[in-house]
Design a protein that fits this description.
Layout: H1 8-19, E1 28-38, E2 50-52, E3 64-68, E4 71-75, E5 81-82, E6 84-90, E7 97-103, E8 119-128, E9 131-139, E10 143-149, E11 160-161, E12 168-174, E13 180-186, E14 199-206, E15 211-221, E16 234-241, E17 244-251, E18 259-265, E19 273-274, E20 281-282, E21 295-304, E22 310-317, E23 330-339, E24 342-344, E25 355-357, E26 375-379, E27 392-393, E28 401-404, E29 407-411, E30 424-429, E31 434-442, E32 451-459, E33 462-470, E34 476-484, E35 493-499, E36 508-515, E37 518-524, E38 531-538, H2 544-547, E39 554-560
Antiparallel strand pairs: 1-26, 1-29, 1-31, 2-25, 3-4, 4-6, 5-27, 6-7, 8-9, 9-10, 10-11, 12-13, 13-14, 14-15, 16-17, 17-18, 18-19, 18-20, 21-22, 22-23, 23-24, 28-29, 30-39, 31-36, 32-33, 32-39, 33-34, 34-35, 36-37, 37-38
Signal peptide: 1-21
Organism: Caulobacter sp. 602-2
Protein name: Glycoside hydrolase family 43 protein
């Protein structure tokens, strides 16, 4: 894995080098490289001793963090993308390296034909007596479960299912005597009093038997102030500090009303009293027209450093318009201060900073694959396996990809991007508002429905696909297709097309450029000169506001044969 920017000379060299590559097997597409580059308006040089927010740019929602000695581990949601639940390691809470995926083999879960924002919700990671636990919910694919590992790199166990728990956002807490408790978001006792009325439940868990024991009980009904009809109390975590138990949870939904609240008790099972100064984190009390806003903050998890300081990881978003963002929910970091025995992440009406003083920890090693700031990542596919940050839609039933002679080779199968199927696609996250993704593809289409290239995809119903495809005259063409809702054709409607001045199988370079809510699509052939196919395309269709759900835009490599 190398990191550098592409210039015209390098583009020519790539095209020339690809031209002498080994012949492809029929029905396959080869991608000789993939380059992602991004820079945001807020990516200013850091002052000495500072760190940048977000610490994990792009689609890294619902962070959960834990410390074991001097090591910190963090996990995120991935929903119906696979491999699922990335596991990160850090020594300083700033530099994060992905070391594994907790859901990394088909036998663990079955995502079926689920929508991309179903399946793997809000994981929570903890460690006890040398065993790491990740609790999670597979929504519409089995319910609540936990997986374990002795080494957080994996392998992680097959799921241990928890059928007694009805709801989502499970989290495990071990008391000083080793007694274990699971808290989660679930339906309230009795009928819901209003839309979004939820409760936080607790029940004891026997780790030796691998099952729930004892009665279930409600810790929080509705939220910290039931009179206001608070919505979607979720993402609970319990921590014990100075003999008291603190329950933190998100409240207000995951949009602009999102927040974090805290309650306190003398026993793990309560009763819990809410902090009078709640919420301890929100951005909903700030002007919507402020410059470079960070919004929708919440779903926090607190961790104490070995030096005694407290920090919080949490999700938030960076919109480029009226609550429109394509980068998904991202992971942020802020210090926690204790005020009169209560943890506070941010005072009211305080904007989340894009930079701040680093934690008082020894500097960690910068990751090979950057996660924050401006950066360029170039993949040459010369390893034995794809990087841990590459994902595909749902769980493959068989292997349709390979790494051969410095290329990612995909078998062009009938499964479609918009068909709620398992298409031949490997993708990585769009991590900046302003970004480019480029690749060199070699593909010989045999029919008009055959295509291979690069995509920008939010889900099955909202995507752009820039591909080398079968033309009407039997010669290949470069084609841009767009799907902006389920009423559009499954493969997308054709936005633009142009005949290619090369024969099938010769290298073609494809590029997607994101500029906030606008996307440009270009291609290059043997002379290396970029040709604009379609510019100023509506990128808001890739935003969460338009497409819905909880994921972010993915930039990927894709191949399909129409199967005729």
């Amino acid at each position: 894995m190398l990191r550098f920017a592409l210039g015209p000379a390098l583009t020519l060299a790539l095209l020339a080098g690809a031209a002498v590559a080994a012949p492809l097997a029929p029905g396959t597409a080869a991608f000789d490289d993939f380059t992602y580059s991004g820079q945001d308006p807020t990516d200013a040089p850091l002052a000495p001793g500072a760190y940048a927010n977000p610490i994990l740019k792009g689609f890294y929602p619902d962070p959960s963090v834990t410390r074991v000695g001097q090591d910190y581990y963090l996990v995120n949601s991935t929903f119906a993308w696979f491999p699922g639940i990335p596991v990160f390691h850090s020594r300083d809470l700033v530099n994060w390296t992905q070391i594994g995926n907790a859901i990394d083999r088909p036998g663990q879960l079955d995502f079926k034909r689920l929508a991309m924002s179903r399946a793997v919700f809000a994981p929570a990671i903890t460690e006890h007596a040398g065993v790491f636990y990740i609790l999670n919910t597979c929504v519409d694919c089995g319910g609540n479960f936990l997986v374990t590992a002795r080494d957080p790199k994996g392998p992680w166990s097959d799921p241990v299912w928890l059928p007694e728990i009805d709801g989502i956002d499970t989290s495990l807490f071990f008391d000083d005597d080793g007694r274990a408790w699971i808290v989660n978001n679930g339906p309230p006792q009795g009928p819901s009093r209003y839309d979004g009325h939820r409760a936080i439940w607790i029940q004891e868990y026997d780790p030796k038997a691998g099952k729930m024991v004892g009665p279930r009980s409600v810790l929080v009904d509705g939220g910290v102030d039931p009179a206001t009809k608070p919505i979607w109390i979720e993402g609970p975590h319990i921590l014990k500090v100075d003999g008291r138990y603190y329950l933190t949870a998100a409240e207000g939904g995951t949009a602009e009303g999102h927040s974090q609240v805290v309650l306190r008790a003398d026993k793990a099972t309560g009763p819990y009293t809410p902090y009078a100064g709640n919420p301890i984190l929100t951005q909903r009390d700030l002007p919507r027209d402020r410059a470079h806003p960070i919004t929708s903050a919440g779903h926090a998890d607190l961790v104490q450093t070995q030096g005694g300081d407290w920090w919080a990881t949490f999700l938030a978003v960076r919109p480029y318009g009226d609550d429109t963002y394509n980068t998904g929910r991202e992971t942020f970091l802020l210090p926690v201060t204790w005020q009169d025995g209560w943890p506070v992440i941010l005072p009211p009406k305080t904007a989340i900073p894009y930079a701040g003083p680093r934690p008082r920890l020894p500097a960690g090693t910068a990751p090979t694959i950057p996660t924050t700031g401006a950066f360029t990542v170039r993949e040459t596919f010369d390893g034995k396996a794809l990087g841990l940050d590459w994902m595909t839609m749902r769980i493959p039933a068989g292997r349709w990809w390979d790494l051969q002679d410095g290329a990612l080779v995909l078998r062009a199968r009938p499964d479609r991007l918009g068909g709620f199927e398992q298409p031949s696609i490997w993708a990585r996250r769009q991590q900046h508002l302003n970004a480019t993704a480029e690749t060199t593809v070699r593909f010989t289409p045999k029919a008009a429905g055959d295509r291979a290239g690069i995509v920008a995809l939010q889900n099955d119903a909202f995507f752009y696909a820039l591909t080398v495809a079968g033309g009407a005259d039997g010669r290949p063409e470069v084609r841009l297709e767009k799907r902006a809702g389920e009423k559009d054709p499954v493969d997308g409607a054709i936005v633009a097309r142009a005949p290619l001045p090369v024969a099938g199988g010769e290298p073609v370079r494809l590029k997607i450029t994101a500029r906030g809510g606008l996307y440009d699509f270009a291609y290059a052939t043997g002379d290396g000169a970029w040709r604009n196919l379609a510019g100023d395309q509506d990128g808001t269709i890739l935003s969460t506001k338009v497409a819905g759900g909880f994921v972010g835009t993915m930039l990927g490599l894709y191949a399909r044969a129409d199967g005729k």
